[in-house]
Amino acid sequence: MRALVVDDIAINRLVLRELLKVVGIEAAEAESASDGLALLAIERFDIVLMDLRMPGMDGLAAIRKIREGENGEPPMPVIVVTADEAADLAKRCAAAGADHLIRKPVIYSDLVAALVAAFERPPELADQAQA
After folding, report:
1. Residue 128, pLDDT score
2. How far is CA 47 from its chain centroid?
3. Are 47 and 76 in contact (CB under 8 A)?
4. Cα–Cα 20 to 30 A to 5, which of 24, 40, 72, 75?
5. Are 64 and 41 in contact (CB under 8 A)?
6. Alpha-carbon distance 120 to 37, whole Å?
């Protein structure tokens, strides 16, 4: 499995990449929403982990563009990873097309739970969630 981690802060990308590695998911990185969309145009990924607050295009706008480009194809899971604590954030993320929301700092069990939900409990992830 391959994931695309989109976050403008290098340490956040590193943390997510290392956590994904624990469950056997290889991660590529983009430091802006526009760079992430450019990578999605040329490479295949199984899931996207998207920060919301980035310079230029924000994560919600990027998610909307991802959804617009799917053209009837099965939707790729998108997990929002953010420190934003806004009360209406979950609704805004869902309206943009995000599948799950994880708050920063990322807790391993929250990430695994979102991955399990996104991939409908593949055995290796379900085992990690119970550990």
Report:
1. 43
2. 6
3. yes
4. 72
5. no
6. 25
Q: How far is C-alpha 41 from the chain's CA centre?
A: 16
What class, spelled out in words, does domain 2-124 have in CATH? alpha beta
Residue 33, pLDDT above cutoff 90: yes
Residues contacting residue 44 through CB under 8 Å, at least 6 positions apart: 2
Q: Which tokens belong to 25?
A: 């998911």
How far is it, in rounded angstroms, from Cα 10 to Cα 116? 25
Q: At 31, which amino acid appears?
A: E
pLDDT digits (tens, 9 = 90+) for 68-118: 988 777 789 999 999 999 989 999 999 999 999 999 999 999 999 999 998
Kindly report the backbone phi and psi dihedral angles of residue 56, in degrees, each rounded to the nearest multiple of 5, phi listed first.
80, -125
Give me the helices (H) in the chain, please. 10-22, 33-42, 59-68, 89-96, 108-118, 123-130
What pLDDT shows up at residue 71? 74
Q: Rounded to an integer, what distance in angstroms lies between the CA atom of residue 28 and that of residue 15?
A: 13
* Residue 122 predicted with pLDDT over 80: no
